[in-house]
Amino acid sequence: MYRPSGTVKRKNRSSNLYIRITAMALLMALCCMFLPACKKTSNSFPELPTSSSTESEETTGASPSIDVDSSEITIASSLSYETCMYLAKLYVAKSQNLLGEGVTGETVDLSYLDSIDLPFILRVFETSENGCDTDTLKQWKNSGDMPDVFLTNTFDAAVSEGFALPISDYVAGNRLLSADRLYTQQISLFYAQGRQYGIPYQTSAAVLYCDMEVLRQADILTVPFRLGTVELNSMLEKLSALNLEERTVLPFYQVSSMLPYLPCSMYKSGYLSASVESDRAESAYREALAFADNIIRSGYAYESMTEEEKDVFFTGLSPLLSRKVGIWTGTTDEIPIYDNYMPNTLCLMQIPSSNDEDLPAPLLVCYPLCISSTCENPKLACDLACFFALDEDALLLAARLTNREGYMPCISSPAVWKSMTSKQKYGAYMIQLQELMDQAIYIPVVSGSEGFRKDQEYIKEQFSALYPITEDDEA
Fold first, then answer.
1. Per-position b or e across 347-379, b if 16+ CB within 10 A of its CB
2. pTM
3. Residue 39 above 60 pLDDT?
């Protein structure tokens, strides 16, 4: 059959077009299958203007080497999730030299920090102000959700029970731990068997509290923060004079609670263990015990009251909340507790020295950050912990974001001291300890140590034996 040549050409063109369309469809299908695997991931750090950026005064050292797909860090501390996130982003910014010249933790723009993507996942567990104890650590470990970094108030137990990792190798060379920035003895507090297990994070101080509502009844209108034993005895005598006809006040609460601190303060002695016979033989301990004994025998203290007198006088109330006690012993981290009940009449004094002309040494309790023995990225965890605890800008930012009453920094930076204490209601007391920090004596209250527990038990037993009419009641 005859077909015009034009018809054949049209058919051939149609066939070629069909082949081309089919080939393009196949190519597009292949692209859909393979192109996602080649997709470029976004940069972990935001592209921000750095033309005016220079290396800030403090840096954390080398930039962190982090696997962005698998790194996860959990921090357990008293800081909120928001504050921890900002601190972690500041750590990244400083590690990458992204802060502008002159920018500090006090002045950095929070919206700028918001723009930074962390190259790791950060989780936060909030603890009490002084951190977690071993019971909490056990619960976390048993649940399989152990934090990588944790603030603790039982350092010795955290080490002895295997919760804390030795970190000497991971912090070696970290300039934030240099001796010219930290106070004497702080690093050595957190060594065990020659290896470092903790990073100094915060300190509180042993003090005498007084309720001015009670003291004013004896015409004591002001009290000195730096106190001598003669001044303390004079105040107790004036308070006791209010009880000549009828008991109206208790001048001093439990004198036994002052004893662990008293030898150190009176004679600037190192810590003397009450349960160690050789320490009890030291003149500083014996004279401190005699001073406490004199307060009790003068009828100034709780230990000199009979059980019947206690029941009648306090009518079942906790003595320290009765508003009938003039002076008692505590540590500054307890300020929020007492301020809640006596917000306008609470004052602080240092534990007294034996010489009214001498300045008492600060008696400090130091709380550390530790790295968990189960941590999968201990180098990053150590770097973050050191940054949170000891970097000047981190501490300035933390003080800006949250107010923590009764605590002092572990570094000597005047700017950090000013920032941390200026927002505190009782900061005027805390700042007075700054100039004496090099003389500080550290008390092992924080350690949860077996030795300190034995000291407390021994003191309780001895005072019960000396004054058998009393029992050492809890506040």
1. bbbbbbbbeeeeebbbbbbbbbbbbbbebebbb
2. 0.82
3. no
